[in-house]
Input
Amino acid sequence: MVSRVIPVDRFDLVIFGGTGDLARRKIFPGLYRRFLAGQIPAEARIIGAARSDLDDASFRQSVAEAIDEFVGPAKRDAAAIQGFLERIRYVAVDARGEEGWAQLATMVRPDVVSAFYMSVAPALFGDLAERLKLHGIARADSRIVVEKPFGRDLDSARALNATLAAHFDERQIYRIDHYLGKETVQNLMAVRFANILFEPLWNAQYVDHVQITVAETVGVGGRGSYYDRSGAMRDMVQNHLMQLLCLIAMEAPYHFDPDAVRDEKLKVIRALQPVGPDDIVRGQYRARGGEPGYLDDAENPASRTESYIALKVHVANWRWKGTPFYLRTGKRLRARTSEIAITFKEPPHSIFDEAGGDWRENVLVIRLQPNEGMNLRVMIKEPGPGGMRLVQVPLDMSFAEALGEDGADIPDAYERLIMDVIRGNQTLFMRGDEVEAAWAWTDPVIAGWEARGDRPQGYDPGSSGPEDALMLIHRDGRRWREIQE
Ligand code: NAP
Output
């Protein structure tokens, strides 16, 4: 089936967990920005739902405060905010009780697109799905949106999929991985498949290795007890880094169609080889100068959960045999940065041996944050007299600069993804089998270190991670890129 992007006039969007942190920080500010872009028509209704006893006016007030806090001043316009708030309603419902459901049933119109965003703890997904069906609120063409984490291992992900499948078809389910909503991530597909330039070189013959880095400067802070049950492997690698790896490694889909794209990503996940103990380094940030270390934040002084992980991963197929993918992600690192770097091999023969200069391989860097963009490092002759000396220069494309005003106004991942839900386009959402395949690869890696009783290594806050992570790549004669903004 070939998907079409259908313009939508009227829709009802119910945000369960409308009073929660995610709704305040991302969902409502994102919807407001889409309103400014003209994508939330007057006939649209956005309905906040949670247990708190609020009326429309007080809920609107809290949304206005969220906009004040999380939308930049340039976009805060009193008249526009008022117009946006007029589309918002509130209903008090309990996912596990009967209160509010009959009222919600009267609010969701039968003749418009309806979507239900479950921005609540995953333990409530089943209760919400059941009641949406029981009260005849969700129809066969309604959409539901579910947040991460989607399970904590294969068994729990399967159980969650089964719970949702009991009430909804797969084509109705939108599993959010907000990395897929990032402009650069989608651009990765455009760069690969809308240009002839890169694809002939995009394989083990020409690519020496790939590095994927997602570095944060913050610690786990107030999320310590949640994070301690998860760790970097479950919280970041199984979903976000895995999705990035898929988009780099996948074959060209036959069409930019949700299932065609997801079929190709699934093949990559299934081709991932198991990771042995020598190819994993885990770490925990230490305390420093009065700032808490991971063990203080996690509250369990004996915790073995990792706040950092580096892995060397192989994709066992014809295209990638022999090209390692180095993945790393962690908290309390030197800088906040996310990037993918594709390092190409050396030319087969150098004609410039005696020319000197600073010779390096070509590297294509795709920056997710900060300053989304791409950068291709190429060798040129150093300008001026003095013979043939080579120097590496960047061909740099910052989206904000290259695309002028449009580039500076890159939508946040959440706002893009929510509008895709309304339009009925699942391309940027994970399919159930993809999530299960990702856990099927992740589980044995975690089980391996648990069985061995491995302890994470300490690393200094503000560093680039544990010492052994350097060795992981050094022993292959390569080095990590600097973690810098
Ligand atoms: P939160 O701040 O704890 O909010 C939870 C929301 O659920 C509140 O609105 C709460 O409102 C509502 N709720 C709780 N029990 C309910 C019940 N029985 N019936 C109806 N509503 C109920 O959580 P959050 O941080 O927004 O996270 C929401 C989801 O997004 C979670 O799945 C989380 O893993 C995911 N997520 C969050 C973030 C983030 O940055 N926050 C990032 C990625 C994923 P009442 O107490 O008024 O009922």
About this structure: Residues 16-23, 50-52, 93-96, 119-122, 124, 147-149 surround NAP (CB under 6 Å).
